[in-house]
Amino acid sequence: MLSGQNIICIGVTDFGTDIPTGKDQIMKILSQQNRILMVNTAGNRTPKLIKRDFQKAFGKITEWFRGVRRFSNNIFIFSPIRMPFSKYPIIRKLNLAISLISLNLIVKKLGFDKPILWIYNLEYADICQKLDHSLTIYYVCDDYSLFRGVPQRILQEKEQQLLRSADLVFVAHRPLYEDRKKLNSNTCLIPNATNPEHFQINFNLSITDDIANLKHPIVGFSGTLDDDWVDIDLIYESAITYPSYSFVLLGTVKADWKKLQELSNVYYLGRKSYNRVPLYYQAFDICIIPFKQTPLTKNIDIPLKLLEYFAVGKPVVAININKLEEFEGIYWVAESREQFIQYLGMVLDGETESLKMKRMEIARQNSWMARVNQMSEIIEELEKERLSK
């Protein structure tokens, strides 16, 4: 594993929340032998005059006044002030200036000499040219220019800039990899992974009370219910088609789901902490990934939740993700909404203990630790090549 490095990680989502992202998993592992500065940012979306965005803005201001704080022995967190409405050039220039001043002060304070810049957030593409560092790594998880409410053209331009200037590019999904490697020869496919021990260590614990008495089979979904990518209508049609099934939804709601609330076999159990999620997965009979067909989802092949579902051995029915040959026969990928609904009635008939064990083994092989070791080898090889020149 990479060791003895100082790493500045600039994400799109905040570090240290109760539902860790891939970025969080990677940085926690790297922090075992490296020092990490996590830069929590405001994301790319233009804020709206709604309560949630006001609360988030207030939280960011509060975090900024706290300055840099220690999260663990080798992880520090900083939330820079960053003004919204970055579609305006003057705002982008001000944000860059503020970020540079803040980060330079913190880098000096922490003694982060020649850090590695590990960037997820395209709003910070310009910082690579201004902040003294040893290596730039751009990690592509999604095509953020396709998210609703973002300055699309600006993000596309910044990504082109970052792709051309980065020393290394890691990409989570094959379709994105095939496209991004055209601009950078040092582009590597690093698929999403999971933390199998987290899900399997709780495998034999008691099922949580709010799901224990629901009628089986239980069809479960865990994730943000956002109508940018989650097909609420498909869940509704599935629940109508199978009135004897219980449909359980976990996560934050960011969609109009009133029609689901009208159904007696749909249960929204709220957002659950990462430590409790395995207890719910244990109760699921079928796990679903009901994505919409959009430009955003057409780039996805291994969503984070797919390997989480595999970690507890559960059958998965998915739609609008790219089918992987290496997982053939392990999960069900529907070509249409009708086929998705059909599969829900078929998937349990072919279930065996052998299939369950195969899924769990796939999860073990695709761990975040394995991904970090893979990326570390790539980084170390690049550093050797640079020193030899």
Notes on the protein architecture:
Helices cover 38% and strands 16% of the residues. The protein is α/β, with parallel strands linked by helices. The protein folds into 2 domains: 6-193 and 367-388, Rossmann fold (3-Layer(aba) Sandwich), CATH 3.40.50.2000; 196-365, Rossmann fold, CATH 3.40.50. Strands 3-4-2-1-5-6-7-8 form an 8-stranded mixed sheet, sandwiched between helices. The chain is globular and about 60 Å long. The mean pLDDT is 89.
Which short descriptors sum up this protein?
389 residues; alpha/beta; Rossmann fold; 2 domains; eight-stranded mixed beta sheet; six-stranded parallel beta sheet; 14 helices; 16% strand
Give me the secondary-structure topology.
Elements: E1 6-10, H1 22-30, E2 35-39, H2 51-66, E3 69-70, E4 75-78, H3 89-110, E5 116-119, E6 135-140, H4 152-165, E7 168-171, H5 174-180, E8 187-189, H6 196-200, H7 209-212, E9 218-222, E10 225-226, H8 232-241, E11 246-250, E12 253-254, H9 258-261, E13 266-268, H10 277-283, E14 286-290, H11 304-311, E15 316-319, E16 332-334, H12 337-344, H13 353-365, H14 368-388
Parallel strand pairs: 1-2, 1-5, 2-4, 5-6, 6-7, 7-8, 9-11, 9-14, 10-12, 11-13, 14-15, 15-16
Antiparallel strand pairs: 3-4
Helix pairs in contact: 1-14, 8-12, 11-13
